Amino acid sequence: MQGLSEEQFNWQPGAGQWSLEECLAHLTMVGQVELNFIEKAIEDGRTRGLMGSGPFRYSAIERYIIRETEPPNRRSLSAPKRFIPAHNQPQTAVMPTYYHVQRMFILQLERADGLDLKRVKAATPISRFLKLSLGAAFEQAAAHERRHLVQARKVREKIPRGVALPATH
After folding, report:
1. How far is 63 from 68, CA to CA, in rounded Å?
2. Each residue of 87-127: pLDDT tens digit?
3. What CA–CA distance (Å, rounded) separates 22 from 121?
4. Strands, E, within the chain: which ranges?
5. What are the Cα distances from residue 85, in Å, to 53, 60, 82?
6. DSSP secondary structure letters along 54-100
7. Which residues of the chain fall short of a pLDDT of 70?
8. What span, in angstroms and rounded, lies between the C-alpha atoms of 66 and 142?
């Protein structure tokens, strides 16, 4: 995002297509929910003494979900309404929160060290009926991040030359 004007940050390549801002705001929104579920799963796993060491092999459905989330996109998926970000948010609102969520994922990965990443289960924003093993939840969250970062890079590559650049002093 470095060096982008607000106009570039919020530029949409077409009707119904997300800007860089929307990609990152979406990741922040989803990430906050995922982190809440992951934190609860870690606490539960520690309380229940579910310790273990890998490598861990996840279920077929978990591997399928991760594979379908991972870029390149095999098919376009619509975000649930609760995860559709507001358009035209400033970089100063989006980026600090996005970076905070990234730091929190790292913290939770560190907190999960020593847990049995297959037996500890985490709820997901995918469905209230679906729980993933903690390791698969981390993998799916990372795949989701990569999916939208690839999307954001493609948007940045399409920003037309006529869209205002930041003023230089």
Report:
1. 9
2. 999 999 999 999 999 999 999 999 999 999 999 999 999 88
3. 30
4. 121-123, 131-133
5. 38, 31, 8
6. S-----HHHHHHHHHHSSSPSS--PPPGGGPPPSS--HHHHHHHHHH
7. 164-169
8. 9
Residue carrying structure tokens 């919020």:
10
For residue 117, which of 99, 95, 135 has the smallest C-alpha distance?
A: 135
Q: 112 by DSSP, 3-state: which?
A: coil
Measured torsion, CA atoms of residues 75, 76, 82, 86, in degrees rounded to the nearest 10: 150
pLDDT at site 164: 65
Rounded to two decimals, the pTM is: 0.92
Quote the pLDDT of residue 34.
98
Residues 6+ apart with CB under 8 A from 11: 19, 20, 155, 159, 160, 163
Map out the domains of the chain as residue ranges: 6-158
CA triple 97-100-106, angle to 5 deg: 150
Give the pLDDT of residue 169: 42
